[in-house]
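During the second half of the funding period, the structural biology subgroup turned its attention to how the target accommodates small molecules. The most pressing case was 5-O-phosphono-beta-D-ribofuranose, which had performed well in the primary screen but for which no bound structure existed. We therefore specified the complex as follows and requested a full 3D prediction, including the ligand pose.
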Amino acid sequence: MIPQVALIMGSYSDYPKLEPALAIFREFGVDVEVRVLSAHRTPDATAEFAKTAEARGLKVIIAAAGGAAHLPGVIAAQTVLPVIGVPLVLPALNGLDSLLSMTQMPAGIPVAVMSAGGGGPENAALLAIAILSLGDSGLSGKLKTYRGQLTAKIMERDSSLQWKMHANG
Ligand code: RP5
């Protein structure tokens, strides 16, 4: 099946940080086009990707980068598809640089920015799935089941905590 989601990273060195997003897509059975494209080092290839994305059947693009993280903004400038930015954490400025590079887009060219570090990559995948779910009831059902499991897990942890507190008290 032709992927409806693309996951773009600014460098291959970003790949390990994005594995949690790929795991979510695997869990949901969603095919993904995965590419290394840089706003700064491969500007022509990045532009070509963005300009042809819609015609190739993509519906949503995730762009992850660290440092001077212009990748999602540059892609969003060249397609009307929804673009989700994932600010990656590099040691020098601990992700604040990536976050600020992505969030302050000028009016007219939006990028939906996830959190820097933590659950950013997973949430990008889940948001992409939520967007695809608008036109796919099967996927929407899977998303609801996923949320239900998340809730059940927290409730279960709360119950064990209550048990532990009472046992100790
Ligand atoms: C960004 O520069 C990439 O997204 C990566 O996070 C960062 C460092 O890239 P490398 O020097 O490791 O290739 O463009």
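Two results from this model are relevant to the next phase. The helical segments are 15-28, 43-53, 71-76, 96-103, 120-133, 137-168. Residues 40 and 70 are 8 Å apart (CA to CA).
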